[in-house]
């Protein structure tokens, strides 16, 4: 097989994995043919190779699903994403003066993947790897703003909306309305809803390979309601450069 043929096979194999992911993780070969436009014999050959490598598995229904081999790659990629984001978070700390975070939506929960702490003696701290519920956090609401309203409703129906403070939004329709407002203005706010006395401003990182958001958080005395409008454009600018640089690095 010529080098160009091997490279084309790699491109096609990754394309099939992406089609599987877009279809919810499990598809029939006929679906892959429709989605990819490739002939069935080519798809069968590529899928069998992915099965042998553990990146795809065949179900009893004879459908094909994303395999466990991708979990290890995904976990490593998540760690690298956090490391790669640190310079951008450091810039936020320098410009805003408060702790900066990056988080991603994993299933129905929000996972913090990177943090750069503020230099203030009184500052916010969240362990990398910590999981929180999306309805009461700034990053969570920014991530929810990347989903359509019906998916937001379905998610909180599965997780529930327990109150963390007296300010936590616990009504699904009120949350959907707030997420819609966040989507329209381009940023979300946790106004002492996760922890009393703490305010967070977050923005979604649109067009990233995975759903991620970045935020700054600090005492409500420093991150005042009046300061939110000035913080949001800084976050949005850093998020835009972060995605642009990711595209360059990714070719």
Helices, by number, come to 8
Element order, helices and strands? Answer: HEHHEEHEEEHHHEEEH
- Tally the structural domains: 2
Which regions contain 5 or more consecutive residues with pLDDT less than 50? none
Per DSSP, what share of the residues sits in E-state strands of 2 or more residues? Answer: 15-25%
Assembly type? single chain
Which sheet architecture does the biggest sheet show?
Answer: 6 strands, antiparallel
Q: What general form does the structure show?
A: elongated
Q: Cα-atom Rg, whole angstroms?
A: 21 Å
CATH topology of the largest domain: Beta-Lactamase
On the 0-100 scale, what is the average pLDDT?
Answer: 87
Distance between the termini: 25 Å
Give the helix/strand class.
alpha+beta
Q: What fraction, in percent, of the residue positions are helical?
A: 40-55%
CATH homologous superfamily grouping of the largest domain:
GAF domain
Highest CATH level, the class of the largest domain:
Alpha Beta
Spatially, the strands of the biggest sheet line up as: 6-5-4-9-8-7
CATH architecture of the largest domain: 2-Layer Sandwich
The total of beta strands comes to 9
């Amino acid at each position: 097989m010529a080098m160009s043929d091997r490279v084309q096979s790699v491109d096609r194999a990754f394309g099939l994995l992406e089609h599987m992911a877009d279809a919810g993780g499990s598809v029939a070969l006929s679906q892959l043919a429709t989605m990819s436009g490739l002939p069935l014999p080519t798809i069968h050959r590529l899928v069998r190779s992915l099965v042998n490598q553990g990146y795809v598995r065949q179900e009893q229904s004879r459908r094909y699903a994303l395999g466990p081999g991708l979990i290890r790659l995904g976990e490593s990629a998540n760690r690298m994403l956090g490391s790669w984001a640190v310079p951008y978070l450091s810039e936020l700390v320098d410009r805003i003066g408060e702790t900066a975070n990056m988080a991603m939506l994993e299933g129905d929960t929000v996972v913090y993947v990177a943090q750069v702490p503020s230099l203030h003696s009184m500052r916010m701290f969240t362990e990398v790897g910590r999981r929180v519920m999306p309805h009461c956090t700034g990053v969570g609401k920014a991530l929810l703003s990347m989903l359509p309203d019906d998916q937001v409703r379905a998610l909180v129906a599965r997780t529930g909306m327990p109150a963390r403070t007296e300010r936590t939004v616990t009504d699904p329709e009120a949350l959907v309305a707030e997420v819609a407002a966040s989507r329209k203005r381009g940023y979300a706010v946790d106004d002492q809803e996760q922890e009393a006395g703490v305010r967070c401003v977050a923005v979604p990182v649109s067009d990233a390979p995975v759903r991620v958001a970045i935020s700054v958080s600090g005492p409500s005395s420093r991150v005042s309601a009046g300061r939110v409008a000035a913080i949001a454009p800084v976050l949005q600018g850093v998020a835009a450069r972060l995605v642009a640089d990711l595209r360059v690095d990714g070719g």
